[in-house]
Amino acid sequence: MKKIFQISLFLLLSLTTQAQDKKAKALLDEVTAKVKSYDNIVIDFKYTLNNSKENINQESKGNVTIKGNLYVLNIMGVTKMFDGKKNYTINPEDEEITITKFDEKDDNSISPNKMLTFFNSGYKYAWDILQNVKGRKIQYIKLIPNNSKDSRKEILLGIDNQTKHIYNLIETGKNGTKTTLTVNSFKTDQPLSKNQFTFVQAKYPKYYINKLD
Questions:
Q1: Segments making up each domain of the chain, as ranges
Q2: pTM exceeds 0.90
Q3: Class of domain 2-212
Q4: Could you give the CA distance from residue 179 to residue 166 in angstroms, rounded to a whole number?
Q5: pLDDT tens digits for 134-177?
């Protein structure tokens, strides 16, 4: 009798887990559909990085403009840009610009243009907690990288239940480092300059250009 109970409990837990996984997949699909429905997205955010073991505690604000795979990211005084072919890192403090070719196989980090849909491949996912944040219901989905060599242990993705927009992203590394990106403002279909994602070298006459092919 005890064995039958244990088997029944196991089957019940398995079915519950499968149902929750389907709920997680359905919610992520809604987020993806919403993101793809916009011509462009402009986000203001707060970024924090903490590692108590290494006594690291950093906080910064930034913004990013995204249109398809194109983006312009401003954070910690540095501008990062992708024009569809090359990545540009503009560092005013060092008066240096680093230019690299686009590498679509590099999945080690979540770049701005992938931040809103990165979860569609390479992860196991599970339904997690629901939190009330200033009157907003934020549903969390836990993402675990399939690649055992990934430096990230897990990612918690907070999704606004009403808008289906990403509210925050909490990434925990295997070394104990926790990075959190919280969206303060999420605007869509904004009027953008036609040169929004175009790198103009003439704007930086004194900068050292570092080309890495």
A1: 2-212
A2: no
A3: mainly beta
A4: 15
A5: 899 999 999 999 998 999 999 999 999 999 999 999 999 999 89
